[in-house]
Amino acid sequence: MSEPINIRDITFASLNRQRLLRNTRGDKYIWAIVILLALTSLLVVYSATGSLAYKLYKGNTEVYLFKQLSFIILGLLLIYFLHRINYTLYTRVATVLFLVSIPLLLYTLFFGATINEGSRWIKLPVINMTMQTSDLAKLALFMYISKLLSKKQEVIKSFRHGFVPIITPVIIICGLIAPANLSTALLTGATSLMLMFIGRVSVKHILLAIMVALIPVALLVSVAVMTYDKEEGKSTISKAANVGRVSTWIKRVQDFMYAKDEAVPYQVQQAKIAIANGGIVMGKGPGNSTSRNFLPHPYSDMIYPIIIEEYGLMGGLFIIFLYLAFLFRCISIFKRCPYAFGAFLALALSFTLVIQALANMAVGVNLTPVTGVTLPLISMGGTSFLFTCAAIGIILSVARNVEQLEGKEPIVEEEKKLTSIG
User: At what angle do helices 340-364 and 182-198 cross, to 10 degrees?
Assistant: First the structure.
């Protein structure tokens, strides 16, 4: 005979489920989007790293799969932990994080680990991992300028008391990131200006900042045009003019502007092949990519063409839909949040993630010059993946606070009744 059903065990199991649901709050659509992107990451990273793992680990193709799975689990735990913290705490640590990020960026610039010709990382002791300090700097910057925007609404139209205190930290952080990672600096600056526009900063002050920022960009494009020999099909810039990563920036602009069908850069060529092989609807199917064997960094910078190859154009459009839905939900949080700091914080962090995603996908389909930005929550995990999860955890913290104010938290009295049983 089967054992009798224990009503008390069922009651407390129900209580535990309710406790879990009560403790896991925030926007349920954002939670769903995060889980969908994480599952996509698991599938695509496993496929993209199969050949690499086979070569490096003597046939063990699951190494990067379990590594990615561990980062996903750790990232979800980080999201859960941060979303449980009242977001008002972040206004207290924003200034500290911003001040800490400055010496870290300086240290990275002069003493950082050089990977793929860029000094963007520092090695973390004990755990033997590298961290891209610009990820911490971006998070700190957006927390800090969200704090400034919320405090300076009364003088926000003033150039001296409103605009200058807000644009100064943006210039500092972007200026320190740019020498090693120009694309990240440009995206960070653009996101900051968008946030300032929404934060009621004077439009003429924002236009002034844009004009100043366009000067070095225009100079870079001009040098790229003047130092390219169309007849020879190559750059004529001298080695003496090579300072830092300037020659790399110039070459990427030239490759984008002048590359012909017979002289398309290898990375772009392989990305186009992957997209062409994917077709419109179904693609080759999960794990059937062939371009992963030829495309540089198919698990990070160039993961989007792999998605299109395996899941077709519809799969690529679905990824875009997920990011846009994420942005839409964050805008909803911004509109519903009654406090300026939380509203600006949720919007700033969502902007930076979605803009980075769009930039990565634009590179993958050759709409913009090649950059080094990854696809948030999908590219192979690392500290960058964890910082993305940290940003999402903070956004969900704001959403959770909004739900509390709107009275959508579960009724505590019901839980007390269940606790008293037995």
Answer: 140
Tell me if residue 280 falls in helix, strand or coil: coil
Structure tokens at 56: 């490096």
Q: Are 18 and 417 in contact (CB under 8 A)?
A: no
Contacts of 103-112 with CB under 8 Å at 24 or more apart are: 104/133, 104/136, 104/137, 105/133, 105/134, 105/137, 105/173, 105/176, 105/177, 106/176, 107/133, 108/133, 108/180, 109/176, 109/179, 109/180, 112/180
- Give the pLDDT confidence score for residue 242 in this predicted structure: 57
**Whose structure tokens read 């704001």?**
398
pTM for this entry: 0.87
What would the pLDDT profile of 174-214 be if each residue is shown by its tens digit? 999 988 888 899 999 999 999 999 999 999 999 999 999 99
CB neighbour class for 102 (10 Å; exposed up to 12, middle 13-18, buried from 19): middle
In the DSSP assignment, the letter for residue 422 is -
Phi, psi of 296 (to 5 degrees): -65, 135
User: Cβ of 158: how many Cβ atoms within 10 Å?
Assistant: 15
**Burial classification of residue 364, based on how many CB atoms lie within 10 Å of its CB (0-12 exposed, 13-18 middle, 19 or more buried):** buried
CA 365 to the chain's CA centroid? 18
Rounded percentage of the chain residues whose pLDDT exceeds 70: 83
SS3 state of residue 46: helix
Treating both helix axes as pointing N-terminal to C-terminal, what angle do 266-278 and 303-336 enclose, rounded to 10 degrees?
80
| CA separation for the pair 171, 151 (Å, rounded) | 20
Average pLDDT of span 89-103? 92
Phi, psi of 119 (to 5 degrees): -95, 85
Q: What is the token pair recorded at 36?
A: 């969908």
> Among residues 30, 22, 18, which one has the least CA distance to residue 398?
30
- Pairing verdict, β 129-132 and 228-229: unpaired
* Three-class DSSP category at 123: strand
Token pair belonging to 46? 């496993």
Angle at 267 between CA 371 and CA 299, to 5 degrees: 70
What element of type H or E holds 119? Answer: strand 118-124
CB under 8 Å to 202, separation ≥6 — which residues? Answer: 156, 157, 159, 162, 163
